[in-house]
Fold this protein.
Amino acid sequence: MRKTTRKRRRKPCLMRWLQSLHVCWDKCITGTLGSKFSSGESVCLSNCAQWYKDIRLIIMKRFQSMH
């Protein structure tokens, strides 16, 4: 029973996290896709990647603490 409850709580959290990645991409990519990103797009995507790594670690630690 407790496992099912944990899984139910995880899904909305993961869905919000994935949705925020899409928002970050949409915010960073302002032009048409070509062979290179602009310097502003590169910086923005780099910040998104760092944010992604930070959030991933937080989520992993939180899930590990549930066990």
